[in-house]
Amino acid sequence: MYKTKRKRGVVLTSTGIKRLQSAILSVEIVENKGEHLSLEEISSRVNVSTRTLSKLWSLSESVDQKTIKLCFSAFNIELHSQDYTIVNKANETETSELLSITNIEEDLSQRSELTSFVEEHHTQTEQIENLWSYPDGPVPLDSHFYIERPPLERKVYREVTTSGCVIRIKSPKQMGKSSLVLRLCAFAQKLGYQTVNLNCYQFDSECLTDLNKLLRRLCWKIATQLGIDPNLKEKWNEEIGYNLSSGFYLENYLLEQCQSPVVLVLNEIDRFFEYPHICQEFFALLRSWCEEARHNPNWQKLRLVMVYSTEDYISMDINLSPFNIGLPIRLNDFTQPQVEDLARRYSLDSFKAKDFAQLMSLVGGHPALIQISLYYLRSHEMTLQEIVEDAIANGGIYRDHLWRQLIKLQENPRLAKAYAEILAATQSISLNPIDTYKLEGLGLIRFEGDRILPRYGLYQAYFAKQLSTIA
To answer: Name one Pfam family in it (predicted).
Structure first.
């Protein structure tokens, strides 16, 4: 019996072409400044001829499986079985009718879906750019994923125009402090102000064991960001002591040269809480600068913004502390309307009221956790039910956030024990006020009447498991 020699080929499915096109679009945005990759550029990247690629895009002509593997690998995605269909391809000497009418109709449908997909995403470049950026760190100024929390933005914008003002932005980590600071600095720059945004974790441990070194480094950083030669050797007078020397340096050297107001942001200022032997004197010095600004023209140019998480408790004379003056700003959870607004920006229009209720029962309105959730939902990597089940089982997509919180508790066994008691309690319990303050600063608790409760269902499920041996 005569057997026709045949070889096997593959054709991309609609799922496969969508995944591949999404990966290409992502590379165009991240690596190619939004410019579309030509067929020749894709060919060079994949190391496959343009003719073979044209066959692949056609969804009607089969190619060998190695070609598809090369394409997916070149754009950093894993090939799944649902991405392609295996067909039999006849020898070149034979005429073969491989596709049935059903297959042809399916291919036409796939091509129509592909066209719609490309058109939709190419006309929404900004949305794609943000969609493919994992929500980690401050929300960029040009991102439409930033959710305003009226009246906070308006209050800080108005306050920063006040001579010698102090703004204190306080909240647990990942609540949006740095995103707000970016916008405050941008607003100040539009007014012609100069801005200095310092992260206190940039100061190494050596500086934080010697106040003189810390103040010299602080003044050097401020001068550098203002574009002024620090000239510390000539302008720093250690004979009068480092407190007075730093004040004179700022007033008579730096601020004297500035014709416009200067916004000084000290981000993560609670870094200094780790060094109690210098922090009280440093904070008292900050307070003295703020008081100088009430009557000294040069100091009035300074607008001080302190950003902190209140993760530690320090006892200071209220007359020396900078934490009880100026405009206090506290960032709270997103409200449900704000979460719904963010979901619309992620194009999750199919989200129903029950979906929002389920998500917020897990993570409340925590900005970072909500952003992460919507990112995974929009990327179609997980369903809401999968996110909830995985989170309750082992932390899921929130594992990094939970791990950071767990480390904080493990570093303070007394605090871990107090939190374990809260997790196990079925009625109101009394806690040491300092422990309560620290747990609230970490964002781990909320208050309901006289009861102290875990802040989110996620925290209840995860930490009850992790701290079960302590309670």
So the answer is: AAA_35
Per-residue pLDDT tens digits for 284-319: 999 999 999 988 999 999 999 999 987 565 677 888
Q: What are the backbone dihedrals phi and psi of residue 293, each rounded to the nearest 5 degrees, phi first?
A: -70, -10
Nearest to 11 by CA among 141, 114, 125, 150: 114
What single DSSP character describes residue 63?
A: B
CATH topology of domain 152-330: Rossmann fold (3.40.50)
Classify residue 3 as exposed, middle or buried by CB count within 10 Å of its CB (0-12, 13-18, 19+).
exposed
- Dump pLDDT digits (tens) for 422-469: 999 988 888 888 899 899 999 999 999 889 999 999 999 999 999 987
Q: Are 267 and 254 in contact (CB under 8 A)?
A: no
3-state secondary structure 41-106: HHHHHHCCCHHHHHHHHHCCCCECHHHHHHHHHHCCCCCCHHHEEEEEEECCCCCCCCCCHHHHHH
Count of alpha carbons within 13 angstroms of residue 403, beta-carbon side = 6
Q: Are 312 and 323 in contact (CB under 8 A)?
A: no
CA separation, residue 458 to residues 37, 222, 329, 362 (Å): 42, 41, 26, 5
Are 180 and 156 a contacting pair, CB within 8 Å? yes
Task: Tokens 């010697």: give the residue.
Answer: 210
| Residue whose tokens read 């995103």 | 179
Domain boundaries, the chain: 6-128, 152-330, 401-466
The pTM of this model reads 0.72
CA atoms of 444 and 102, how far apart (whole Å) = 57
d(CA 21, CA 121): 10
Residues in the chain: 471
Residue type for 274, please?
E
Distance between alpha carbon 338 and the CA centroid of its chain, in Å?
Answer: 17
CA angle 252/255/257 to nearest 5° reads: 90
Q: Quote the distance between the C-alpha of residue 17 and its chain's center.
A: 30
